[in-house]
Amino acid sequence: MGTSFVKQSSVKMSNPENKEPKKHQVKQGQSNSNARPLSIEGPSTSSNTEQIPRQPLPNQPRQPTNLQGLLKYAMDAAQSEDLENKSQVYPLDEEKKTFLNEALSSLTVNVIEELQKAVQILSNVNNLRADDDSSEYENVLERMVDFVDNIDIANDFYKIGGFSIFQPCLNSSHSNIRWRIADIIAELAQNNPFCQDKLLEAGVFPVLLSMIDTDPSEQARIKALYAVSCIVRGHPASLKYLDMNDGYSVLLRAMQSSVEKLQIKSAFLLSSLCSRNNSNDIKYTLVKMGFIEQAAGLLGRMNLQPTVREQLLRVLSGMVNDNFLPALKECRRSQLCLRSTLEQLLTELKPVENQDEIDMCSELLDKVFSESDTPQER
């Protein structure tokens, strides 16, 4: 038993001594591997891989030994590359400066000078005969319209005497000049009280109304109505001129015309006028002139354009708004058949496409033909 104990003990004593050097060797190997510097080697081909040993590229920065060193190495390499590719910046000589200034000057326009030149050219439009070429004047007008939509430029256009060209251009024998100048008047007047006042003083309003009624050019009639609308909307003072020059009759006749855009624009203008505050005078004028009867007849047409129909409904809604009694009484006249027309529209209109019109028809039926109101259309 004693011998057996000694053998086991010697074995246990010898094992730690035999294993200790191996652990020490492993640690040394690991530390040597970590301390080995990274090397950047040049590209190799399959032909010389076995013959020529890989060598680090010459003239390289100090090779990194850890992650921080690797990051610094990459940043230094990128910075040196940027410096090599950076273009040199030199000051401009006088010749190049002159060329650049002339190029920039050619891209800028003195608007007032351009408008003055245009006014000077258009002042001779009276000399243009019906068989003359009007392209020069048309080009001038086309260029002008790009400038005058700015309110400040529009006001300056009046101050340089630009409004003096309106009467000659509106009375030109060339329709392309007439409709273009009407378009310019519209741009000048839109949301510009100063120009709206000055246009009324210039006397263009009755000329524009006459163009809506009688001009042989469809485009000239449309643009004239556009100009009238821009002068009137948002400008209460112009309503007096509209009444004085029988403008409401002109608008009603425009609604009866065969030109769809005239129908739409005239109905839209009337709708806008009836929807404003303190519009009972306008509503009463339209009732006396037979607008409701005309609107009821148009709504009953089978081939009425959807946009025109929508605007007519808007005008009627505006006229009966605030329970304006003269309009309500006129709508209830049995001869107009307005109730049956509205009910028929409700069966024909599609909810997805015509929801606004459906709502207006329902509102008109409730407001005009409710059971509590008498007399009613039966």
Automatic annotation (TrEMBL):
Annotated transmembrane regions: none
Under InterPro entries, the record lists:
ARM-like, ARM-type_fold, Hsp70_NEF-Inhibitors, Nucleotide_exch_fac_Fes1
Q: Which GO terms describe its cellular component?
A: endoplasmic reticulum
Keyword terms, alphabetized? Repeat
Alphabetized Pfam families for the sequence: Fes1 (PF08609)
Q: Compositional bias (Polar residues) spans?
A: 1-16, 27-50
Which domain of life does the UniProt lineage start with?
Answer: Eukaryota
Q: Where is this region: Disordered?
A: 1-65
User: Which is an annotated GO molecular function term of this record?
Assistant: adenyl-nucleotide exchange factor activity
Where does the record place the Nucleotide exchange factor Fes1 domain?
Answer: 67-156
Q: Which PANTHER family match?
A: HSP70-BINDING PROTEIN 1, PROTEIN FOLDING REGULATOR
- Indicate what this protein is called per its UniProt record: Hsp70-binding protein 1
Instruction: Specify the species.
Output: Trachymyrmex cornetzi
